[in-house]
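Dig into these lines:

——
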Amino acid sequence: MEAEDAAPSPDTRKKASQCSEFLASFKYAVGLGNLTPLKPAEYLQNLAEIGLCPNDAKMIVQGLTPHNYCDGPLGDHYDDETDVWIFGHRLNNSVEVYIKLRLKPTKKKNVMQAQIWSFHRAQQPLRYPLRNSR
């Protein structure tokens, strides 16, 4: 059996499952209107540099799948109780976008805030470890 035809490892399946769960929760929070960029001025500037508006970014985030996964969960260096997840997205098959997301509990019970840490042109090529898994 060739390497590319091999079944995904248990670790890869677990990571894909965790990623799917995070994205489902994130998208649910977005659907409730709980989407916030953590650095609004920088976020808007970064979007303008790649020719997007906030609604474009929201649509991209809502379309993310484990196929877009790059890394995570990683500890957030600003909040020990929160993890960040990193995704990539290619715009029109040319510009690769680096997207860092997190979910933060709110004061309301069982309500999460979907937060965008980063959304900008990737500074180096991104790696997508779940793309070759089946």
